[in-house]
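thread: overnight batch results

M.L. [08:02]
morning all. the overnight job finished for the chain we discussed friday. pasting input first so we're all looking at the same thing
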Amino acid sequence: MDNMTPPPTNERPLVLLAQPLLLEFAAALSARYRLALAADADAADTAEARVLLIGFAPVTDQHLAGLPVLELVAGISVGVNHVDLAACRRRGLKVTNAGAAFAVDSADYTVGLLVAVLRRVTAAEALSPQRLALCMTAGEVLYIIAILSQF
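M.L. [08:03]
and the structure it wrote out:
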């Protein structure tokens, strides 16, 4: 079977989800994995799950104890400060996170927010249409639009 052909359903590994995923992300994963919410998992699911996909919810030693064949705790967030790393280490589990996946987006949002604060974009949005028209004639809003169009 080539890498592009999804395995049959009965051969797809089970991934437990600590929280529901965005629909697009779930659809992409379900082509290769069977997904089950940890909160809805039965004894068979917890006995089979080799991967726990987590967001921001805490992962404790108690959570891990109920997953006997777990091999990987995969985070979709940047940090792992909500994961009991000592418990993972004792169990020989690998722990991953999103790393720098959001770095470029975070930088873009930071620059945008900085410009918005310095140029009082949200204050301008709160103005009535008549006041906004006066600002535009004074050049204030046009200057903000010109700055934002360069990013």
